[in-house]
Write a structure and sequence with these properties.
Elements lengths: L2 E3 L6 H9 L8 E7 L6 H9 L6 E7 L6 H6 L6 E6 L6 H11 L4 E4 L5 E2 L3 H12 L3 E4 L3 E3 L4 H6 L10 E2 L4 H10 L10 E4 H6 L10 H12 L3 E4 L4 E4 L12 H19 L5 H19 L1 H4 L4 H8 L7 H13 L1
Parallel strand pairs: 2-3, 2-5, 3-4, 7-11, 8-12
Antiparallel strand pairs: 1-4, 5-10, 6-12, 7-10, 9-11
Helix pairs in contact: 9-10, 10-11, 11-14, 13-14
Length: 333
């Protein structure tokens, strides 16, 4: 995607001097934050990154053509570690915007953060420490905090009793890894719960698709590509829980359903070398339930099963089991 670069971590003149002397300045961690209509929350989110105890990072803000004052708010920050990229046209999904930041990243590690959440001050320190001690391709946190009314004043008053936990590695066996970490709930797929080694992502061609449930696609690829993943149980992230989500927009229903079907095909392809149809069916069933509950049922909550069936029949005539699963889950909610 075409982007324009608004800010630099160092000036071009300074960079030229270092390059002439053979010195390469690279941050250890590239924090990538996609921005879209984030004016209300951006200051708190960015400041939480700037106040990290781990200082060796670059913060890449990727502005996806917001319709509010997000860009102006981003330009107000005066910190040499911040780079602002602006998409020339709206890419429509946070995954596509994250890819722009990933392409620009220079750090040894990459961390993706949402534009309305808060990273506790030891977040990067915890993640990098676990990655270094375990030579990990990825680090995953199994706990986080949630808040519905997180603002600057309340964030300052939050008292969190953090207890440092021993990190633990995932299984080297792929089927065991998927069962233990995904199907049994040991690993959440939100990108902000992971630190990734950048070279690992590049070597395996792992990027976000322009689909709903892009985090499932991305982290399923991650867990399939490596057993060098370590989990930490110390929470460091505050997720802003609110219902104003584009995934709940009725206009996105058809796209969300198509994305789930594409996820089915993607998972099936990834697992086909195992030659285990029963295992693949279990994995597909698990992610069908998860994605339908997240991306479909919230949109359909006021519709009857008959209305849903009539609406889906023309588009999904060849996917009767999929529609049956959807209606079954709808009835159980």
């Amino acid at each position: 995607a075409a982007v324009s670069r608004i800010g630099f971590t160092i000036s071009a003149a300074v960079a030229k001097i270092f390059l002439e002397r053979g010195v390469i300045l690279l941050a250890r961690v590239s924090v990538v934050m996609p921005l879209y209509n984030a004016e209300k929350f951006l200051e708190l989110s960015v400041q939480s990154v700037l106040q990290q105890t781990f200082k060796d990072f670059e913060l890449i803000l990727v502005e996806d053509c917001s319709t509010d004052g997000t860009l102006a708010a981003a330009e107000n920050f005066d910190d040499a570690r911040i780079t602002i990229l602006r998409n020339e046209k709206n890419l429509g999904t946070p995954g596509a915007t994250r890819n722009v930041g990933l392409d620009a990243a220079q750090g040894e590690y990459v961390y993706f953060m949402d534009d309305d959440d808060v990273l506790l001050e030891r977040g990067l320190e915890i993640l990098v420490d676990a990655a270094e001690k375990n030579s990990a391709d990825a680090v995953n946190a199994s706990k986080w905090y949630e808040s519905q009314n997180l603002d600057a004043s309340s964030a300052d008053e939050i008292k969190l009793d953090l207890q440092r936990m021993q990190s633990s590695a995932v299984s080297e066996d792929l089927q065991t890894r998927i069962y233990q970490e995904f199907l049994r709930g040991g690993m959440h797929i939100a990108p902000w719960l992971f630190l990734y080694r950048r070279e690992f992502l590049l070597a395996n061609g792992i990027k976000f698709p322009a689909e709903a449930a892009e985090d499932v696609f991305f982290n399923f690829d991650v867990i399939c590509a490596t057993g060098k993943i370590v989990k930490v149980d110390e929470p460091f992230y505050i997720w802003r829980a609110y219902t104003d989500s584009t995934t709940r927009n009725p206009a996105r229903l058809a796209k969300n359903l198509q994305s789930i079907l594409k996820l089915h095909a993607h998972i099936s392809e990834k697992l086909s070398p195992l030659g285990d149809a029963e295992f693949t069916a279990d994995v597909l069933k698990f992610w069908t339930r998860h994605t339908l509950r997240s991306y479909v049922l919230p949109i359909l909550q006021r519709k009857s099963q008959e209305e849903i069936s009539q609406a889906l029949a023309p588009a999904f005539a060849q996917n009767a089991p999929f529609v049956a699963t959807l209606l079954q889950l709808y009835a159980q909610k």
